[in-house]
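Hi W.,

Here's what went into the run:
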Amino acid sequence: MSSRVRGMSLKKLKKYKMLYLMLIPGVVYLLINNYAPMFGIVIAFKDVNFAKGILNSDWVGLKNFEYLFKTEDAYIITRNTILYNLVFIALNLVVAVALAVLLYELKNRFLPRLYQSIILLPYLISSVIIGYLVYSLLSMETGLINHTILPLLGRDGVMWYNDPKYWPYILTLVKIWSTAGYLSIVYFAAVVGIDHEYYEAATLDGANKLQQIFKITIPLITPVIIIMTLLQIGRIFYSDFGLFYQVPLDSGVLMPTTNVIDTYVYRALIKNGDIGMSSAAGVYQSIVGFMIILISNYVVKKINPDNSLF
Amino acid sequence: MMPRKTEQWVINIVFIAISSLCLIPFILLVASSVSSEASIIRNGYTLFPTEFSLESYRYLLKEPAMLIRAYGISIFITVIGTVTSLIVMTLLAYPISRRDMPLRNVVSFFIFFTMLFNGGLVPTYLMYTNVFHIKNTLFALLIPGLLVSAFYVILIRTFFTMNIPNEVIESAYMDGASEFKIFARIVLPLSTPVLGAVGLFQLINYWNDWFNGLIYITDSKLYSIQVLLNTILLNAQYLASNTNFVEDMVAADDIPNHGLKMAIAAIGVIPILVTYPFFQKYFAKGLTVGAVKG
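Here's what came out:
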């Protein structure tokens, strides 16, 4: 018996040897790039001293976190990160679903495809380029808005890059400009997949267009909406670093409304070399972010197991 | 209810307005890059050049080494990065798509977990710079964060499980084909749609990446085009202090700074604008390949 089992497992091992070998490069990469830094979280509980080496540096318990949460920054970056994400998720959802529904209503064969490619274009370019595009609009000396549009309306120029109060609106518009097109294409694919018979039946029953949209289209694409939204809610503690760093031109004056956890961690680490503060903020982000993913998935699973991510 | 025809017109007008909003910033960028510096100072950036001039581009061509170098690095990183990444991710996705492979679920979870939790920038940065010493090397642009994405691996795996029948693999195995042969001769040729989509995404991700350059590259010789653009945008003095423009000109004030900025950005975005019409079909399709469930 035992020899048979051993014989089988040896045979099995031989059969699958190639498959296990194939896994090696990817597994090694994930161990280095993803898993090793997870253990690096201990850095936040140390007073890193490069002379002693990171692993031999002294433990300081929660000191780094105490310092972090004593600053006003901790509150500002948490508030900014969450509020921006909530606004982005809600507005993007409304705009993208509206675009998808309208695209579907077009009875032309060629135009929907043309519109789709145009509204997807902003999603493809790097945030550095987006930074340039916004600069060409808002530059205080030469921007289109200050130089052409505001004078046409008989208004004075605005010092966009000097006043934080404009930035919640600017960043929201830029975010929707760059991602609503992408989301609308995902939703459009879901709308196209709806069985046509529903609409035929509804028309026979005398339902008008709006009723069809709210009673058929939207309920039937709800699973896709939930998954896409859940993916975004899971990342509510993370931000689009480029949007908050490039678009405001890394400006200190604008930080009250443009600093988020990601930009804070970056600046504390690279610009100030403050490993204590940056690692504490990073761990705060990793752990709360992880809990939010688990909770949001759990809630969806309770409501409808088919819509959960895992 | 609106008559059918009016309704179509209204929807079309809405889309024309939205499409214009998407395109106007690009038009503004390109138009400003071909405007004379004097007209930009007078009228600001405009959607149509009030005074057409290629002076910004002429200045750039006086000092082509910087741009050509950055372009070369971007192309090199994009090609090598995309190819390596596709190979590693496909090799990782295939075994976990095989229902008969022992430990399949353990490996799948190992990959999926990286989407849920991460150690953050600080440990990653310290590890790559102090253990692997990749600061100011091309590896810094190729490896951290970009090479393997769990999301794409799961996308490829899902495609394999849904589109390649187990019977095909079984019968090839019965015929004496090795595992690797089955993978290379049967699985890969059947999977071009998903490989094309993921390859395209990675192509764009590598071309657009500037974050690795921002944190790991300080040597301007290793700047990719995005990192160069980023430095010029955030550091107004960069062009004046890092090129020979000043020596050629009478004074730094003579550099067509406003136009130059737009010309450099235009050069950075043109490859995407020019190739987009050709790949947009695959891109839009690729976005909807993955109805993923972990």
